[in-house]
Design brief:
Distance between the termini: 49 Å
Order of helices and strands: HEHEEHEHEHEHEHHHHHHHHH
Structural class: alpha/beta
Shape: elongated
Bound molecules: zinc ion
Number of domains: 3
CATH class of the largest domain: Alpha Beta
Number of helices: 15
CATH architecture of the largest domain: 3-Layer(aba) Sandwich
CATH topology of the largest domain: Rossmann fold
Helix content: 55-70%
Strand content: 5-15%
Number of strands: 7
Length: 349
């Protein structure tokens, strides 16, 4: 269950919430903004639980919920009637009806047990203008006990009138040191793998945890490097087949939207794997040492390719990777882009 001591970095945000818990100066509305995986839900739950706890106390640096009282136990099991998390019926939009039925009609009912009633709105950027206007009515005259926490990956999606009534708390990228420490100490991940996941996560704690704990990434990494190491003997159609196999979603029970999301994630991770792999090849070529490599488990491949390719060739590959990244960002046909990329790599190793 979320606790402040478990939130990695985010000092500014933690300070703000701790100060509110200490002084009782709690705002009626917050926007917590940050990319997917940055931990917005975790932070919101830690705050909601602490606000409602019947006997919170200072433990070490932080005022924390007790985790023992009735309110905390209910918060833990997701059944606390004073913590309401908005759900939306349509997958990509929060409609005016969602806001009316789940928030506007219920804010007038006093909290069951606590001093506060906390509403959490995940995917806040999905509120359309009508929904935002409906929410605005509540934000304009909120009952004293109401706290609304809007979570979003895009704070620009909100009307200025919404933003001006909220305390905006941005999630910042966590430091590599903090992420690495968490992976090694809390998740017991071995050091080279922790380094790898930290490099890939770029400050996103959720992404680091996903990379460290899922077979998806491990499989993808092995398959991508395998394809590169066998490029020489393969024809275009064979290479294409391999790329498609690597990218497609492996979960047969996934919905169409989930499959698409995973395929996009695999595509992005494939480019990242290539980027870090060739960076390793360059490092090894110039130092002949394994200690600074990200893919230490792929040393034999790295050594082979670095011996057989020139600095000029590796430079060409980095340029090809850069081009591919840009094309995909600008929605140029991804299949074709990846095919061209692998042909460029084939020519230069
Ligand atoms: Zn408690």
């Amino acid at each position: 269950m979320p606790r402040f001591s478990d939130i990695i970095d985010q000092e500014q945000l933690k300070n703000h919430m701790q100060n509110a818990l200490e002084t009782g100066k709690v705002s009626h509305a917050y926007i917590i903004s940050g990319e997917d995986g940055s931990g917005k839900e975790f932070v919101a739950k830690a705050y909601a639980k602490a606000l409602l706890c019947e006997s919170r106390e200072k433990e070490g640096r932080y005022i924390e919920a007790c985790d023992k009282c009735h309110s905390c136990i209910q918060a833990e099991s997701g059944t606390n009637p004073d913590i309401i998390t908005l759900v939306h019926e349509k997958p990509n939009v929060i409609s005016v009806d969602d806001i009316r039925t789940q928030i506007r009609d219920s804010v007038i009912i006093k909290p069951y047990a606590a001093k506060y009633k906390v509403y959490i709105i995940p995917d806040g950027e999905m509120m359309n203008v009508q929904a935002q206007n409906a929410l605005l009515k509540t934000l304009e005259e909120p009952p004293a006990y109401v706290v609304i926490i809007i979570l979003t990956n895009n704070a620009d999606a909100f009307l200025q009138t919404i933003i001006s009534r909220c305390v905006v708390l941005p999630m910042k990228p966590a430091s590599d040191d903090s992420i690495r420490k968490y992976l090694m100490e809390d998740m017991k991940i071995v050091s080279y793998k922790a380094d790898l996941c930290t490099s890939f996560a770029r400050g996103n704690v959720g992404k680091a945890i996903e990379l460290a704990s899922s077979d998806r990434f491990e499989g993808l990494k092995n398959n991508v490097i395998e394809v590169v190491s066998k490029l020489k003997g393969r024809e275009i159609y064979q290479i294409n087949q391999k790329i498609q196999e690597i990218i497609k979603c492996k979960n047969e029970d996934a919905t169409a939207a989930e499959s698409k999301k995973e395929a996009l994630q695999n595509q992005g991770d494939m480019l990242d794997v290539l980027l870090f792999f060739f960076r390793d090849i360059l490092v090894y070529k110039s130092t002949e040492k394994a200690e600074h490599l990200i893919f230490q488990d792929k040393l034999s491949y790295i050594r082979d390719i670095s011996l057989n390719s020139s600095y000029e060739g590796i430079k060409n590959i980095f340029e090809a990777l850069d081009r591919a990244q840009k094309r995909i960002t600008y929605n140029v046909n991804a299949d074709l882009t990846l095919q061209m990329l692998f042909l460029d790599i084939k020519e230069n190793i």
